[in-house]
Design a protein that fits this description.
Blueprint lengths: L23 E4 L2 E4 L53 H19 L3 H42 L2 E3 L7 H6 L15 E3 H5 L6 H29 L8 H8 L10 H16 L7 H16 L3 H4 L2 H20 L2 H12 L5 H21 L23 H31 L6 H16 L3 H4 L2 H9 L13 E2 L15 E2 L1 H24 L9 H25 L19 H17 L3 H11 L5 H18 L4 H9 L16 H4 L12 E2 L3 E2 H10 L4 E5 L7 E6 H14 L8 E3 L15 E2 L10 E3 L4 H11 L3 E6 L2 E7 H11 L11
Parallel strand pairs: 7-9, 11-12, 13-14
Antiparallel strand pairs: 1-2, 3-4, 5-6, 8-11, 9-10, 14-15
Helix pairs in contact: 1-2, 2-7, 2-8, 2-10, 2-12, 5-7, 5-14, 6-22, 7-8, 8-10, 10-11, 10-12, 11-12, 11-20, 13-17, 13-18, 13-19, 13-21, 13-22, 14-17, 16-18, 17-18, 18-19, 19-21, 20-21
Keywords: Antiport, ATP-binding, CBS domain, Chloride, Endosome, Ion transport, Membrane, Nucleotide-binding, Repeat, Transmembrane, Transmembrane helix, Transport
Membrane topology: Multi-pass membrane protein
InterPro entries: CBS_dom, CBS_dom_sf, Cl-channel_core, ClC
Length: 812
């Protein structure tokens, strides 16, 4: 039988007390302190009036939680840390609660009002989640924009202004040099009173790296000291939590505060990371915080996950300014259980979050993201060939990145490198700063780089990428410029972009997974946008100089605006992001919402699907699934088919030559016998049989419920001692005179545990676990109990069948 090493042996009191500061576990290389577990109600909290606790009887209806008490027992029906919830039990609890509210609402007006408020509470929770996510995202955007510019200079009008805002009000700014104004001073101008020369360059270089190191050190220090869970992207853990796994503290208040602060610091340091992935984690922390305000979400883990699914949609909504894309992202990428009701509420939360961010207007341009762009030229059918080439590049880059990054993260976990997270962050920051500063396209923020690459060059654009040789006799409109010959600035930009591409490809491998908040969306998009812009410029010049070639003849005549390099950058960005994450529908919608152009959906679809096909041909896992497997989380992927011809008897525990399955009998066992079994084993639950001889199955009782029930029986029922008999039957067994009082525990017994026969094909068993969210399933033969299959057993079996290490699955 599969053992769960997370349960403590011996001490019953450990289930009622708070975990100590010494209880640490290593997850993804970060020491985790269970004392920060503030996202799950403590066991000793008083139960709320009118709330029906689940009675452990599966789908057999509700009764009193304990037969020897009139009131519910705090802690019964809750879960230990690093365990999977029982979806069937949680949904049964919610149905019982809903039935009670419905029946009471017919009795009085006050009960009817309470019932209506309960129904409306879901929408109120979504409103609050959207408001919080939008407000925090706006704060992060403004702070990171200001701190990024702080590395290069300061505004004399007010140090809190970033470069762009500082020059807005200046009357001495020209259109061609709109980023230069007397109010904004670089550090060399401030200290040396000169902007050019070797001394000025060295001083700016030194201060740039100093600020980057300071921001990075502060970020990693805050994460390490206050909230170890605030590091990384957070999406792999969010996916695992939404599948039913418990990670206490991961969505707590400290994690929310520290992740918000350190995300600003990490982005401002210039590291090759983005804030979009961590914003999903931040939004889910907001969702978890709001859940505490509502009883039905606070006390039901399945209902709470409905809110978290909607919160993840709100996170993507504010990250990309894409509410519909956020809903589809939640549905396609992170959610495990997504009923229609959650779809509507996700849409509402994403809408509120986007509206809140729009009201804050963090970039001052009435847009939700920095790299919003509109293209004016249509695309031609023959351009699908370079778009598909970009898709192939995105798929190859995605597969290469996943393998390289997982290999580096595994090395970090298994060597001394993982013991020095602060040093690692500082070294990578120093290397990034030293290599990034000389190149204008790596020195700027990654969001600014993407904005520059997506830009469709106009006649008045002063960027190097728009340094074309203009035809002075052209009568075309400003937004409909013909293809032009590239000038010196474009050729210089091409070389800088080629170097930036190599730099971004390799530095991102070492950056993602460090002990600072780090998203992958923006770095992946940057790699694709650079490759796409380079290809777009090449196609543009090819069409200009060889418009008589057969591939251009008929649609690209001289003086026509045929090729839009910015469109190629956008398609490349989508292709690379799709290759890394394996997103499809949601990614296309997100990119469409970014550009506001319906006519570019087909190129995006072609590139994204090609990218997915290529990357899937090399490796089936996306980056988030790969990190889930690396960390040993019990995530049962719903997208993969189980095709092996094995049976339940091949997977169940105990196997042949193993000790027999530990079980309890429905009557005749003493309290001390049960306590001995609990102390000597680490199993998460025990089957209950009629007798040891017959092995006829009666039900299943969870270890945690058993411990809490025995403790409360000793405290609150007179005469319960170690020699008292425990029984799970409806009526008390006949006992000799003068024997101690018996303890009835039938109400904590699940009388309808899921069972399969020993000859059930494993593909059916895997399907049952996926669709019902089971923790365990009992195996019988002709009605007799043979063994048990847990979620951990299934994951180990799948890993074994795929020639992977089954011992990498650490949790149940």
């Amino acid at each position: 039988m599969a053992k769960d090493q997370l349960y403590r042996r011996g001490s019953f009191n450990s289930y009622q007390s708070n975990t100590s500061d010494e209880d640490m576990v290593e997850i993804a290389g970060a020491p985790l302190d269970f004392s920060l577990a503030d996202d799950v109600p403590p066991l000793d909290r008083e139960p709320q009036e009118g709330y029906t606790y689940y009675n452990g009887t599966g789908m057999n209806g509700s009764s009193k939680i304990m037969d020897f008490l009139d009131e519910p027992i705090p802690g019964l029906g809750t879960y230990e840390d690093f365990n999977t919830i029982d979806w069937v039990r949680e949904k049964s609890r919610d149905r019982d609660r809903h039935r009670e509210i419905t029946s009471k609402s017919k009795e009085s007006l006050w009960a009817l009002i309470k019932g209506l408020s309960d129904a409306f509470s879901g929408w109120l929770v979504m409103l609050l989640v959207g408001l919080m996510a939008g407000a925090i995202a706006g704060l992060i955007d403004m702070a990171s924009h200001w701190m990024t510019d702080l590395k290069e200079g300061v505004c004399l009008q007010g140090f809190w202004y970033n470069h762009e805002h500082c020059c807005w009000t200046s009357s001495e700014t020209t259109f061609e040099q709109r980023d230069k104004c007397p109010q904004w001073k670089s550090w060399s101008e401030l200290f040396l009173n000169q902007s050019d020369g070797a001394g000025a360059y060295i001083l700016n270089y030194f201060i740039y790296i100093s600020w980057a190191m300071a921001f990075a050190f502060l970020a990693v220090a805050l994460v390490r000291v206050f909230a170890p869970y605030a590091c990384g992207s957070g999406i792999p853990e969010i996916k695992t939590i939404l599948s039913g796994f418990i990670i206490r503290g991961y969505l707590g208040k400290w994690t929310l505060i520290i992740k918000t602060v350190t995300l600003v610091l990490a982005v401002s340091s210039g590291l090759s990371l983005g804030k979009e992935g961590p914003l999903v984690h931040v939004a889910c922390c907001c969702g978890n915080f709001v859940c505490h305000l509502c009883t039905k979400y606070r006390k039901n883990e399945a209902k709470r996950r409905e809110v978290l699914s909607a919160a993840s949609a709100a996170g993507v909504s504010v990250a990309f300014g894409a509410p519909i894309g956020g809903v589809l992202f939640s549905l396609e990428e992170v959610s495990y259980y997504f009923p229609l009701k959650t779809l509507w509420r996700s849409f509402f939360a994403a809408l509120v979050a986007a509206f809140t961010l729009r009201s804050i207007n963090p970039f001052g341009n009435s847009r939700l993201v920095l790299f919003y762009v509109e293209f004016h030229s249509p695309w031609h059918l023959l351009e699908l060939i370079p778009f598909i080439l970009l898709g192939i590049f995105g798929g190859l880059w995605g597969a290469f990145f996943i393998r390289a990054n997982i290999a580096w993260c595994r090395r970090r976990k298994t060597t001394k490198l993982g013991k020095y997270p602060v040093l690692e962050v500082l070294v990578v920051t120093a290397i990034t700063g030293i290599l990034a500063f000389p190149n204008d396209y790596t020195k700027m923020s990654t969001s600014g780089l993407i904005s520059e690459l997506f830009n469709d060059c106009g006649l008045l654009d002063s960027s190097q990428l728009c340094d074309y040789i203009n035809d002075v006799n052209s009568t075309k409109a400003v937004d409909d410029l013909p293809d032009r010959a590239a000038g010196k600035g474009v050729y210089m930009a091409v070389w800088q972009l080629a170097l930036a591409l190599v730099f971004k490809v390799f530095i991102t491998i070492f950056t993602f997974g460090m002990k600072v908040p780090s998203g992958l969306f923006i770095p992946s998009m940057a790699v694709g946008a650079i490759a796409g812009r380079l290809l777009g410029i090449g196609m543009e010049q090819l069409a200009y100089y060889h418009h008589d070639w057969i591939i251009f003849k008929g649609w690209c005549s001289p003086g026509a605006d045929c090729i839009t390099p910015g469109l190629y950058a956008m398609v490349g960005a989508a292709a690379c992001l799709g290759g890394v994450t394996r997103m499809t529908v949601s990614l296309v919608v997100i990119m469409f919402e970014l550009t506001g152009g319906l006519e570019y959906i087909v190129p995006l679809m072609a590139a994204v699907m090609t990218s997915k096909w290529v990357s899937d041909a090399i490796g089936r896992e996306g980056i988030y699934e790969a990190h889930i497997r690396l960390n040993g989380y019990p995530f049962l992927e719903a997208k993969e088919e189980f095709t092996h011809r094995t049976l339940a008897m091949d997977v169940m525990r105990p196997r042949r030559n193993d000790p027999p399955l530990t079980s309890l009998t429905q009557e005749g066992m003493k309290v001390e016998d049960v306590e001995t079994i609990i102390n000597e084993t680490t199993y998460s639950g025990f089957p209950v049989v009629v007798s040891k001889e017959s092995q006829r199955l009666v039900g299943f009782v969870l270890r945690r419920d058993l411990i809490i029930s025995i403790e409360n029986g000793r405290k609150r029922q007179d005469g319960i001692v170690s020699t008292s008999t425990i029984y799970f039957t409806e009526h008390a067994p006949v006992q000799p005179p003068n024997s101690p009082a018996a303890l009835k525990l039938r109400s904590v017994l699940d009388l309808s545990p899921f069972t399969v026969t020993d000859h059930t094909p494993m593909e059916i068993v895997v399907d049952i676990f996926r669709k019902l969210g089971l923790r365990q399933c009992l195996v019988t033969h002709n009605g007799r109990l043979l063994g048990i299959i847990t979620k951990k057993d299934i994951l180990k079996h799948i890993a074994q069948m795929a020639n992977q290490d089954p011992d990498s699955i650490m949790f149940n």
